[in-house]
Amino acid sequence: MNYLTRQFRPAASAAIRANPAAIAVSGSRGYHQKVLDHYNKPRNVGSMDKDDVNVGTGLVGAPACGDVMKLQIRVDDNGIISDVKFKTFGCGSAIASSSYLTELVRGMSLDEAGKVKNTAIAKELSLPPVKCMFLSKLVLVM
Known about the structure:
With about 140 residues, the protein is α+β, with helices and mostly antiparallel strands. It has two domains: about 30 residues, no CATH class; about 100 residues, Sufe protein. Chain: A. Helix content is about 45%, strand content about 20%. It is built from seven helices and three strands. Strand 2 and strand 3 form a beta hairpin. Helix 3 packs across helix 4. The N and C termini lie far apart (about 60 Å).
């Protein structure tokens, strides 16, 4: 064991014991726990029948960062979103924001869902305003 290891190991151990959540954050590029949760256990992944007259499909991509997202919503006779599915190929932020969006808009009217702001998604997931994260909002508008 060298000098630096002997000097800093006790301090690091104490810091980890004081804040065990720091391990998850530092080991995952600083993502907030909500992002990690939606990334590791994404909600509503899948597809719906695109020929169903009550299903709308949006597809967007951001060539700059390589993210692509497909979002499908099923709207009932009252104009309420009754089901939501997504498939996202991209970074953790894009996947997490897509997953979060599906939970957020289920049960909303189309008008309400159209008013969801990118900043609300970023704030809820503690994400910086990066383009790939905004795919989920963009595809909803389509």
